[in-house]
Structures are given as C-alpha cells and as structure tokens.
Write a structure and sequence with these properties.
single chain; about 120 residues; three-stranded antiparallel beta sheet; globular
Length: about 120
C-alpha cells in the first residue's frame, strides 16, 4: 500500500493523502491491543479531507489565532472515531512496565497533542 500511496498522492496533487492516512490509522488501531482489549478506528478519507481543509481554512482566515480550536477540533475528531472493545473482565487489563512502549506518546504526536509545559 505504501508504494501505491506516494505515486497516487503525487498524481492527485496530495488529495489521496487523507485516504492513505485513514487506511493507515485503521490498520494501526486494528493491530493495537492492551491485554485482551482491542481498538477500532472508524475514520475514512473523505472525513479526514474535510478535517484537513477545515483546519487549513480556520488557520488561514484567522491568521493562526484559531490554532487552539484546530487542536481541539482534531482531538474531538479522533476521539469520536476510536472505540475500545473490552474483554469480558475489564479489570484484568494490566501493563507490565518491562514491556511498555512509546505508543501513547507516538499517537499523541500523530494527532497533534502537545503535553509540554
């Protein structure tokens, strides 16, 4: 899929990229688990294109003053399209610190969260 994404993005002047991003997000979340809990992502290319264009318009029209609204809008978009499928016993979910990864931090960077103080 990656080898098709770049040529299609170039041929469509970047309009294919939201569909590629949606496909990639659905794949990553479908293969992410916490214990027995699984994730589902319900995002599609047209929705991402509307989000990107809306964010671009907001920032351009307000000369960057709407950056915090864009961040909130993006966060609301992603959180409304993610769901967790819990096992029969949700209290059985635990994390082994030796096996932890930077997935949460990477996802926060991916959707634009900034936890810096």
């Amino acid at each position: 899929a990656w080898f098709c994404a770049w040529p299609l993005t170039i041929l469509t002047a970047g309009l294919f990229w939201p569909w590629w991003s949606a496909l990639r997000a659905r794949y990553y979340w479908a293969h992410t688990t916490i214990g027995e809990a699984r994730f589902q992502c319900h995002v599609f290319g047209g929705e991402l294109l509307r989000l990107y264009l809306g964010n671009l318009i907001l920032i351009a029209v307000t000369l960057g003053l709407a950056t915090s609204w864009v961040a909130a809008r993006t966060t609301r978009f992603w959180t409304s399209r993610l769901s967790v499928i819990l096992p029969a016993e949700p209290l059985s979910i635990t994390q082994n610190p030796a096996q932890s990864s930077a997935l949460g931090e990477s996802f926060a960077d991916y959707i634009g969260f900034d936890f810096g103080v």
